[in-house]
């Protein structure tokens, strides 16, 4: 069950690790996020076909790449906090009758997943987060992922010499980083939009809770897409997700009040400009304050999710 493998809401050296169809990013995190002078990091770009839609297709090559990274950063046997790829994560909200305890909810989901609750995969690991318990019922978020995929990642991490102790998803790492460095409360309903090559990951948080997660492929079937058209397509998708969140999920009662962008430094400034012309919500770049954290000069913001994952080991 996911409560043993995917705990979403819980001076050592930890490893933070994120995966996508395009890359593996690893950080060796020691101390705390206010001083990253000792942070080590490594990025490997993956050839097409090694990982597809978050699923490992070429296990041997993937394992070899991961072992190279483990050796380079000298992180054998280190506690590892890794992200389940967003493409394989399901988040759904349920309004259930009655005041249900956590054991009640655990039993309900255990029985109903695969019956009343249909997921795009057969065997699921899951976790849940209660949003509200009242006389009118219990409002709860369900997080689920394919059990076989989670176990495969854990097995490969074990074989590479790591000690995988916790699985989350990358947006939780982003939000952990953001909340650590802001003064006061975060924006009420805030969106993180992460663009990597032709993949857009969008997440919306309210308070500490992720309420919406979506991965969108921006691939052009004819492979004729220019960078300008890619950025415009990404901006259009962000606008569509804003509307979906406000009118479908929140029934018009709430809307996103800020968007924070994350991605390749080469394209983020241009993406910010394009997105600002499409949406009326304030758009900011998620960046690392180098003077404050004393980080290496070549560390860029694309490593924030991995750092945020590793921070769980020292902030829980």
From TrEMBL:
Region forming the signal peptide: none
UniProt xrefs under Pfam families: PilM_2
InterPro entries associated with the record: ATPase_NBD (IPR043129), FtsA/MreB (IPR050696), PilM (IPR005883)
Domain of life assignment: Bacteria
Protein name as annotated: Pilus assembly protein PilM
Species assigned in the record: Sporolactobacillus shoreae
Organism phylogeny: Bacteria, Bacillati, Bacillota, Bacilli, Bacillales
